[in-house]
């Protein structure tokens, strides 16, 4: 009887996830378009204004685009090949870990060098637009089904990126008012710890789902 009940629950859970797919797909495609467009703007801004926080944020936005793209593919595969969809969730979580390690590496390298001057105000302006973009995308994605690991992973990418925009704004303000150029690298390190934690949670959940 309990087996029958479990099977019924699994079926209901599966039905619940499938009923969300068309709406989730629309949400993810819209989020993908917004993030990809701003990623290009932010990368150019980071390069022109010599800011690691902005380039790291743009790199993370590229990762967001990849994550959203993978989540869209995973939704398409959910009914056709659930196993591949679960593997994509592992890949999605792992990419969060990789981007965190990359930011740590870059920040440590920069801390060992003579602090480079950055154009603080333009950097703050670009990062503020980035923050607004991330808030818009995060609000759009709140309507998606967060029981789906790929959707949750894509959302965590966006939330970590939102934090990245806050870090870039704080770094720019410190550099402008107090001439503290090192804040950029230290703030990037703190951000990477948050991303690392999110990445580990999603990857662990995805591996656990694979084993079931």
TrEMBL record:
Membrane topology: Multi-pass membrane protein
Record domain Cation efflux protein transmembrane: where: 28-210
Main subcellular location: membrane
Residue ranges of the region described as Disordered: 1-20
Localization in the cell: Membrane
Keyword Hydrolase: no
Domain of life (superkingdom): Bacteria
Cellular component annotations (GO), alphabetically ordered: plasma membrane
Protein name: CzcD protein
Swiss-Prot/TrEMBL keywords: Ion transport, Membrane, Transmembrane, Transmembrane helix, Transport, Zinc, Zinc transport
Transmembrane residue ranges: 27-49, 61-78, 87-108, 120-142, 154-176, 182-200
Native source organism of the sequence: Actinobacillus minor NM305
GO molecular function: zinc ion transmembrane transporter activity
Pfam families: Cation_efflux (PF01545)
């Amino acid at each position: 009887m309990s087996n029958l009940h479990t099977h019924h629950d699994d079926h209901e859970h599966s039905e619940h996830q499938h009923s969300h797919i068309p709406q989730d797909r629309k949400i993810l495609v819209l989020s993908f378009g917004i993030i990809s467009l701003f990623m290009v703007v932010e990368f150019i801004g980071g390069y022109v204004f010599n800011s690691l926080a902005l380039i790291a944020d743009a790199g993370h936005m590229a990762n967001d685009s990849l994550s959203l793209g993978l989540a869209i593919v995973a939704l398409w595969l959910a009914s056709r090949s659930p196993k591949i969809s679960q593997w994509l969730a592992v890949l999605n979580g792992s990419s969060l870990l990789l981007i965190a390690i990359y930011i740590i590496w870059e920040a440590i390298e920069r801390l060992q060098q003579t602090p480079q001057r950055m154009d603080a105000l333009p950097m703050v302006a670009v990062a503020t637009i980035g923050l607004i973009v991330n808030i818009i995308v995060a609000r759009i994605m709140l309507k998606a089904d967060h029981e789906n690991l790929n959707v949750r992973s894509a959302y965590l990418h966006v939330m970590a990126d939102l934090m990245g925009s806050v870090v870039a704004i704080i770094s720019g303000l410190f550099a402008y008012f107090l001439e503290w150029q090192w804040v950029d690298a230290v703030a990037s390190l703190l951000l990477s710890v948050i991303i690392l934690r999110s990445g580990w949670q999603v990857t662990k959940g995805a591996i656990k789902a694979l084993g079931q």
